[in-house]
């Protein structure tokens, strides 16, 4: 991946050495754990950690989503819009599941419990929102709501009155914090 960004030769070998043969110990209350190898991730708090994380996550923007993806450090927002609540729900769910699959394939995780969605509409439907939650499907049931897959149950609604416009403005924006495994 790094040669794609122009990191080659001595710089590439130096970068690889930064990630090789790392080990860690956890200390709690004066007790130390067994030393274990670290196979994934960047050193948190390190000067280079943020840069390497951004290089690593940058390709998520190549996904063919229904909505628009916004990235800021390890926060992500997806903005979807549609003409009906059913279409909006379908698009947002498909996008979140596509992002989830991409993250899993790159040794990253998404905390569904911390994922929130916000509805911007001139005709909010609280009943629809109460019955339909954005979910991350790890089952084989597709988008079936009867499965036990984790769901984001928290949403916020904002009424938007579009002056001089007859088009319904609807959107679900999902905000999540990405976690390094």
TrEMBL record:
PROSITE patterns: RT_POL
Boundaries of every Reverse transcriptase domain copy: 1-138
InterPro entries for the chain: RT_dom
Pfam family, one: RVT_1
Protein name: Reverse transcriptase domain-containing protein
Organism: Nesidiocoris tenuis
């Amino acid at each position: 991946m790094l040669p794609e960004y122009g990191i080659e030769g001595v710089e590439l070998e130096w970068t690889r050495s930064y990630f090789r043969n790392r080990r860690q110990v956890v200390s709690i209350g004066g007790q130390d754990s067994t030393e274990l190898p670290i196979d994934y991730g960047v050193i948190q708090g390190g000067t280079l950690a943020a840069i390497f994380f951004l290089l690593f996550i940058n390709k998520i923007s190549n996904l063919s989503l229904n909505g628009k993806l916004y990235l800021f450090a390890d926060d992500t927002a997806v903005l979807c819009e549609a003409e009906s609540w059913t279409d909006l729900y379908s698009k947002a769910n498909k996008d979140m599941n596509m992002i989830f699959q991409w993250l899993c394939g790159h040794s990253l995780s998404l905390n569904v419990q911390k994922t929130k969605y916000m509805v911007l509409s001139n005709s909010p439907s609280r009943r629809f929102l109460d019955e339909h939650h954005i979910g991350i499907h790890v089952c084989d049931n597709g988008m079936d709501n009867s499965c036990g897959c984790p769901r984001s149950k928290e949403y916020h609604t904002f009424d938007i009155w579009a002056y001089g416009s007859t088009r319904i403005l609807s959107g679900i924006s999902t905000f999540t914090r990405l976690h390094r495994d």
